[in-house]
Design goal:
The complex is a heterodimer of chains A (258) and B (252). Chain A contains nine helices and eight strands. With 258 residues, chain A is of the alpha/beta class. Chain A has an eight-stranded mixed β-sheet, sandwiched between helices. The chains are: A alpha/beta (258), B alpha/beta (252).
């Protein structure tokens, strides 16, 4: 059952509460870009309710400047998240929190986990990834599997001037090169991570990009990796949405059984 | 003028819970406005726009109630529960809740796109003083065909090369047989059980003509071109505030 949770400073959220005794871990689903808290194709609402049905209180809310939160941000978003966690913990009593979401939500979840020791898990859906060499290799392999008629067009694209703006600039990714040390900090604290990439990004095609971005730590047991090239960025198909809800539910249940 | 913080609340609608947000003006309201949101993907796409508009109307002395139909957004229910009939019923319940909240002030119903269909029903059945129709789709069959064409174009251009292959979905959301049949059968004439209140149509300059004598307000580009855009837009506040001022003036 959902309840309204007031979060202060003009913000509120919808807290999906378990019917029975809740686990000691709560989940926060962050905004996917500018989409309000219900998420693309209502994915946020359904994910939160599925997690609650499995015993995990799950909160969705709008960050400043999105959806129902009318004012823009007057402080860093990681501080906004910290304030939200205060209210969430006061309401649920949950000692541990998992945060995450799609795209910008993954970026913010990563930053929030670095700042806030209450965050014990992050699910990053199309989160940061660099490793241009591996990306280009995978793209070349994919191109070679296509008929030669596609090759000429690809060469034209390669010869075109580079894009002015990269994904890293549009998003709020960590400073280049800082990712391995940041991941090590999170792992040292016992933070669990789910990194799931879809075929809907313009920057991820090869799993080795993760090693190139995050270093050897990405192979640790704390990091679960999924690559779903058949899915798009916002899970346009119902079957993909259900698969994602099941995947996150299984990951939360296995990593946070208490 | 600073408006009070919006009040999120649950509405009881025939044993179902609808999520809603009430925007109150700083002083006792001179009218109450119910927003019947658009359907399917257009609901999420326009959510921010109507949150901003509600706040701006509140600054002009109007109380505004926004809500999600059963089976949509944050309201209870599964995606497959949403039908046009339930949307009509929900709109009537929401108008009743607004009436209680504004204590005797006149009521206005704003229907957005195909939300015009339940809005017209609620306004006429509920005795609203005015009806505002935003880029209205008052012929459900036309609307369904428009969305189907847009859906087909979306899949053709899909960057990940996906193909739909899923029955009963439209623009990525569930569109059950019941919803599709309800839309095909919906016409403005069949939605109006009694005499309609005065109508104001808001649309792009040169937009579709509305039935009957109506007042017309042209929408600035950021307020009307969100429908066909692929991404989630951001809405500038200045045209929203200007529009709120014009709408409020229609009630003087």
């Amino acid at each position: 059952m959902d309840e309204i949770l007031h979060l202060g400073r003009g913000m509120f959220g919808l807290l999906s509460q378990p019917a029975g005794v809740p686990h000691s871990t709560a989940v926060v689903v962050l905004n996917a870009g500018f989409i309000h808290r219900s998420g693309p194709f209502r994915l946020g609402t359904r994910l939160a309710r599925a997690l609650a049905a499995a015993g995990y209180p799950a909160l969705r809310f709008d960050l400043p400047g999105i959806g129902d939160t009318l004012p823009g941000a007057d402080r860093p978003l990681v501080e906004v998240v910290a304030g939200v966690l205060d209210r969430l913990q006061a309401r649920t009593g949950c000692a541990r929190v998992v945060v995450g979401g799609i795209c910008a939500a993954a970026d913010l979840g990563w930053q929030a986990a670095l700042r806030d020791a209450r965050i014990d898990g992050v699910f990053l859906l199309d989160g940061p990834a660099r490793g241009r060499f591996w990306f280009n290799l995978a793209r070349a392999r994919r191109l070679l599997r296509k008929p030669p008629a596609h090759w000429l067009a690809a060469v034209r694209r390669l010869r075109a001037p580079p894009a002015d703006v990269t994904d890293a600039q549009l998003r709020d990714w960590p400073a280049r090169g800082s990712e391995p040390a940041q991941l090590d900090r999170l792992r040292a604290r016992g933070v669990q991570l789910l990194m799931l990439f879809t075929g809907g990004t313009a920057y991820f095609l090869h799993p080795r990009q993760l090693r190139a971005t995050f270093g050897r730590g990405v192979r640790s047991e704390a990091v679960a990796i999924e690559y779903w090239p058949e899915c798009d960025h916002t899970y346009s198909l119902e079957a993909h949405r259900q698969r994602l809800i099941d995947c996150i539910g299984t990951w939360v249940a296995s990593r946070f059984p208490d | 003028m600073t408006t009070p913080e919006p009040e999120p609340r649950w509405l009881a609608a025939g044993g179902r819970r609808l999520f809603s947000v009430l925007h109150r003006p700083p002083a006792p309201p001179r009218a109450g406005v119910l927003v019947c949101p658009p359907l399917l993907n257009e609901h999420a796409r326009s959510y921010r726009l109507f949150a901003l508009l509600a706040d701006a109307l509140a600054a002009h002395g109007l109380a505004v109630l926004r809500f999600d139909y059963h089976g949509t957004g944050d309201s209870d229910g599964e995606d497959a529960d949403f039908t046009l009939e339930s949307a009509r019923s929900d709109s009537g319940e929401a108008l009743g809740a607004l009436r209680r909240a504004v204590a005797g002030a006149p009521l206005v119903v704003l229907g957005v796109r195909a939300g015009a269909i339940p809005a017209i029903h609620a306004a006429t059945a509920g005795g609203a003083a005015a009806l505002w129709l935003w880029q209205p789709c008052t012929d459900g069959a036309d609307y369904l065909a428009e969305l189907q064409a847009r859906d087909a174009a979306r899949w053709r251009a899909h960057p990940a090369g996906l193909r739909p292959g899923e029955a009963q979905t439209l623009m990525g959301l569930r569109c059950t047989d019941a919803l599709a049949e309800g839309l095909r059968a919906a016409r403005v004439e069949s939605c109006v059980p009694g005499a309609a209140p005065p109508v104001t149509v808001l649309d792009a300059a040169g937009g579709a003509a509305a039935p009957g004598p109506v007042r017309r307000i042209d929408l600035a580009a950021p307020l009307h071109d969100w429908i066909g855009q692929p991404g989630m837009g951001r809405f500038p506040r200045a045209p929203v505030h200007a529009l709120a001022q014009r709408l409020a003036a229609t009630l003087d």
